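User: I'm preparing a small set of examples for a lab meeting where we compare how different chains pack in three dimensions. I only have the primary sequence for this one, and I'd like the structure in token form so I can line it up with the others. Please keep the answer compact; I'll paste it straight into my notes.
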Amino acid sequence: MLTDPISRLPLHANGAIALTGAASGIGAATAARLNAAGHRVITVDLHDADVVCDLATEAGRRLAIEKVTELAGDALAGLVTCAGVDTSRNLPGSRVVSINYFGTVALLDGLRPALARRGDAAVVCVGSSSATVIPDLPVELLQLCLAGDESRAGELADATGSALAYGASKAAVALYVRHSAVKPEWIGAGIRMNAVAPGFIETPLLGKPRDASQSDPVLETFLEATPAGRLGKPDEVAALIAFLLGPEARFFCGSVVFADGGLDAKFRADHWLAVWNRPARLVHRQVGSLRRGAA
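Assistant: Understood. Below is the structure token output for the 295-residue chain.
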């Protein structure tokens, strides 16, 4: 019987994998890779998808949740949240955070029951290395996102501008994954959730390839700073997503995996390890217990 490299199960037993942002870029590359492996992929996007909707709106999010659940047969094997916009389209900051963060979280929460019914399910959220390499991200905007206050977050994002709103929205996605993945309703229900943080990738979000006369100064600056010396390719990120969906990644939980050509490591080599300093009262309590035991 045919098997595929992701699930190691018969193809008819795989179950469906939902994929947002599937019409282009990393999403399209991921859809192609999963389809080639024999998976049934339910695509979600503004166009050219099984479910056509706008994840910046509550109505669009409800439609996506309802239709994906219906098409999956009420049980979902996997979910990849790839839908997102950046600053290249001159969109208001409010739309950036509405799609990148609030649209993502709405689908995660809304499709969690279908993932739990399947069991041994996997979720991969697409974040960005912009969450860590863009300096001076607005902390208040990040906090409003995590607090679920879309209205105030949108107002602040419009005032802040789309560039910082993009970084903050992707940082919020990463923090949501870190905080939520370890909870009983996720890993305790058999749902593994992780994130990938791509760097600068050759996708429509960066516009069409530019020649020397059309170079973008900001893009060129980050490209020169990237140790790998080039833009990433959508299929390179798609391969990582496919791995995180598969059985070889079953011990991954709450991880944010960078695929950015070394950009985060270059700028933040000493920041990845945050030493855990326990509260003083806890340390004193444990030391006291040790002393009593020694006596």
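A couple of notes for your slides: Strands lie at 16-20, 40-45, 51-52, 76-81, 121-126, 191-198, 256-259. DSSP finds eleven helices and seven strands in the chain.

User: Perfect, thanks.
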